[in-house]
Amino acid sequence: MAELLVIRHGQASFGAENYDVLSDLGRAQARAAGEWLRSMDWAPDRVVTGTLNRQIDTATEMGFAPPPDTHAGLNEYDFADLLDARFKGDIPDLVKGDRKVHFRTLRETVFAWQRDEIENPYETWAQFTARVEAARAFAVDTDAKRVLVVSSGGVIGQMVSESLRAPAQHMMNLNLQIKNAAMTRFMFSGSLFSLNEFNATPHYATPAGAKLMSYS
């Protein structure tokens, strides 16, 4: 059996004009994840990321040698676009600026998206799930025994949910739990693909490491 280790990117820049930039904390999180894996004598034979800067930069900060392949199917869903479609371009100020309201609205919006209740989204729920599956298939189409993937919370939640054959809503319940730079591990061989570990953060399991933990 081979391993697919999927890492969520480090903390990005919530509230900034350009969200797709790792914060200083996000870079530290990525370095901590890479250092812990090396301490366990774990190094990837293949690295795959999405095409977002925060994903590519997380892989770089982790410090592994194999140059990364990229697959756009690993990119996060565009919540800003979904919000714009849901609220017809008039997004409430609290949704933009208040973290608690933001994430409650995120959950409600994704559930509506899954039910096809949002008119003219940039991509449908079916298109999102299809591209995530295509990215997963790309990552495991290899002779490598250890594959490192850097992606985002929604994609990881969908991979886990699909591997468990869970209802669509379960994706979002998982998505909101996933910590920055957390590790989710799958085992694969041929057509076999199964969840081994979800949302693990052993690199935060010290007093110093605990200060690195974040969810967004």
Explain how this protein is built.
- The chain has 216 residues and is an alpha/beta fold.
- It folds into two domains: 2-76 and 133-210, Phosphoglycerate mutase-like (Rossmann fold), CATH 3.40.50.1240; 78-122, no CATH class.
- The chain is 43% helix and 16% strand.
- The protein has helices spanning 24-39, 53-62, 79-86, 93-97, 99-114, 125-140, 153-163, 169-175, 207-210, and strands spanning 2-8, 46-49, 69-70, 146-151, 183-189, 192-200.
- The protein has a six-stranded mixed sheet.
- Strand 5 and strand 6 form a beta hairpin.
- Helix 3 (79-86) crosses helix 5 and helix 7 (153-163) packs across helix 8 (169-175).
- The radius of gyration is 17 Å and the shape is globular.
- 37% of the residues are buried.
- The model has no long low-confidence stretch (mean pLDDT 93).
Quickly describe the structure:
With 216 residues, the protein is α/β, with parallel strands linked by helices. 43% of the residues lie in helices and 16% in strands. Strand 2, helix 2 and strand 3 form a beta-alpha-beta unit.
What's the structural blueprint in terms of helices and strands?
Elements: E1 2-8, H1 24-39, E2 46-49, H2 53-62, E3 69-70, H3 79-86, H4 93-97, H5 99-114, H6 125-140, E4 146-151, H7 153-163, H8 169-175, E5 183-189, E6 192-200, H9 207-210
Parallel strand pairs: 1-4, 2-3, 2-4
Antiparallel strand pairs: 1-5, 5-6
